[in-house]
């Protein structure tokens, strides 16, 4: 068994193979030289110097898992059942693709001093002294990572400006009426948010906007999204989607025999939501490996159709989301969105299909179970924040 990628999805695949009884050789290949680590703490504890790293608490030696770190994979030759790597060819019987996603860079910024991304441990280490010097920082992109980094930078005492080309934060993730209340969070935290602000170019010490505005910047952090890290699969025969995602089936098998894909690099068809999902979140990388291992070993073959889940800590708020709201035909508010705690629920034909909870973890926990069960809801009861979600189910 060979696993390409030493992040959450790759490590958990190796662990799941052992837990489900596989006794043969397992190798995990990772491009980074560091011991495999968790990514969410990078924008929080690691960045603020509250933790040295976020290495997984996994004893690879006792599991009999071989780690090949600092080894970039260059290509795949399925006919020969071999990977091409910097260290030479690696044969496999079964291959799992778990290469994750890589941040989208801004054209013209390569080599410009003071421009940063935040995806890897090395990225976080480069940014720690930037925060310590309390620079004026410009963040490009008001998505999840932009908000989390802006939060950390304010905690470190930096002056922070966030520029967003769209008319609101999280424009690609949430409807306008849901994202609108989040705009005030930036000002409350002392962060200047500029919407409708397109970046013309970045130069040393400044970000220049399309309208000619020059924003002083001791450092610039670009957070404009991520794409599956799959360019190395070109010509391999592994079918890719329009976003570069590996097109896995409902058992996380690829178009190539004995090659599976899991985590951020792969999309999968969801019968629950009636469309193919590409989920770039931690929980997907945690849950998918158990399905992959079961399907590889054939003991417990299973369809992968989870309720997507993620969380974000930003500007003193704990934001959680479960489900997929694209096909909703009704939206129900629970609580005042200008208050510290509120929830939005999305329904389709009266069934709960997604919810966003701000400071209401009980709503999230109950809602996730109700989505999994496909329960119908009473919209009037659902709108009462004093009622629990489980008490708002239709009788």
Task: List the main descriptive attributes of the protein structure presented here.
globular, five-stranded parallel beta sheet, alpha/beta, 395 residues, 9 helices, 26 strands
What does this protein look like?
With 395 residues, this protein is α/β, with parallel strands linked by helices. The protein has nine helices and 26 strands. A five-stranded parallel β-sheet has the order 3-2-1-7-19. A five-stranded parallel β-sheet has the order 9-16-10-11-12. The N and C termini lie far apart (49 Å).
Can you lay out the helices and strands and say which pair or pack?
Blueprint lengths: L1 E3 L3 H12 L6 E4 L30 H4 L1 E4 L4 E5 L4 E4 L2 E4 L3 E3 L3 E3 L11 E2 L4 H12 L3 E5 L3 H12 L3 E5 L12 H4 L3 H6 L3 E3 L4 E5 L2 E4 L4 E3 L2 E4 L3 E3 L17 E2 L11 E3 L4 E5 L4 E4 L3 H16 L11 E6 L2 E7 L6 E5 L7 E7 L2 E8 L2 H13 L5 H4 L13
